[in-house]
Write a structure and sequence with these properties.
Elements lengths: L3 E12 L2 E12 L3 E5 L6 H8 L7 E6 L2 E4 L6 H12 L2 E4 L11 H12 L4 H14 L15 H14 L4 E5 L7 H16 L3 E5 L3 H7 L2 E6 L2 E6 L1 H4 L6 H10 L1
Helix pairs in contact: 3-4, 3-5, 4-5, 5-6
The protein binds adenosine-5'-diphosphate.
Keywords: ATP-binding, Cell membrane, Membrane, Nucleotide-binding, Transport
GO molecular function: ATP binding
Protein name: Amino acid ABC transporter ATP-binding protein
Length: about 250
């Protein structure tokens, strides 16, 4: 039986009169990478932020591993916020540009969350953080400060920091779009590495060639719905839907 890590059912989100997500359903098996593609404004970032409850959906169910929240029946006030926090803790988010603590070293950026928020033992957290820094190729930068790093290195620290919290899934919101072109490759390589190590990832990206290589599943969004989904060999190489074809013609 497949082990489903993320299950999204009937997800809806509006901002005022704007229906940004109009009923989203998908599942993500454990250890797979899902790439969200679609034109600007199609709802990709809102969907990603909904998984992490940075945006609170109006309706629908999100389950990540053993935590499930029904946003159609979310209790008001404190109880609802507690449910949201439980779901948020299941995922780690990597943003467009690193939002590292500027006055903390690279190592401290990784250890702060696990020590302060998760109250885990310092020795264990530091040892794990060093392993993670090694994984993203930055072992020798542990004692540097963010301003001493390139944009690509900072983004790799951002990824390691998300992993340090041991999330069940890692969410990437256009992780390379704020980088100079020559720095994109090193960050994509780290993400690809994570995917091959068995992390479950959901990635919003405009890098179609990268999506083709890394994705197990591509969801093509337009107008707040999933227009087409499947492996990249289908959705990217041989899209069935006219809207997908039109989008790919524009970006490829
Ligand atoms: P994408 O990531 O596909 O470009 P987004 O999810 O960022 O799309 O945005 C979808 C639509 O929702 C856009 O029209 C955007 O302007 C709107 N939107 C996103 N966030 C907000 C917000 N906090 N308040 C109002 N409108 C928003």
């Amino acid at each position: 039986m497949t082990d489903i890590r993320i299950e999204v059912t009937g997800l809806k989100k509006s901002f005022g009169d704007l229906n940004v997500l109009r009923g989203i359903d998908f599942t993500t098996p454990r250890g797979t990478s899902t790439v969200l593609l679609g034109p600007s404004g199609s709802g990709k970032t809102t969907l990603l932020r909904s998984l992490n409850v940075l945006d609170t959906p109006d309706a629908g169910v999100v389950r990540i591993d053993d935590v499930s929240v029904d946003f159609s029946a979310l209790p008001a006030g404190k109880a609802g916020r507690a449910e949201g926090r439980r779901l948020r803790a299941q995922s780690g988010m990597v943003f467009q540009s690193h939002n590292l603590f500027p006055h903390r070293t690279v190592l401290e950026n990784l250890t702060e969350g696990p020590i302060v928020a998760q109250k885990r033992p310092v020795d264990e957290v530091v040892a794990e953080a060093r392993v993670l820094l090694d994984q993203v190729g930055l072992a020798e930068k542990a004692d540097s400060y963010p301003y001493q790093l390139s944009g690509g290195q900072q983004q790799r620290v951002g990824i390691a920091r998300a992993l340090a919290l041991k999330p069940r899934v890692v969410l990437f919101d256009e992780p390379t779009s704020a980088l100079d072109p020559e720095l994109v490759g090193e960050v994509l390589a780290v993400i690809k590495d994570l995917a091959s190590q068995g992390w479950t990832t959901v990635i919003v990206t405009h890098e179609i060639r990268f999506a083709e290589k890394v994705a197990d599943q591509v969801l093509f969004l337009d107008g707040g719905v999933i227009v087409e989904s499947g492996p990249p060999a289908q959705v990217i190489a041989e899209p069935r839907e006219e809207r997908t074809q039109r989008f790919l013609r524009r970006v490829l």
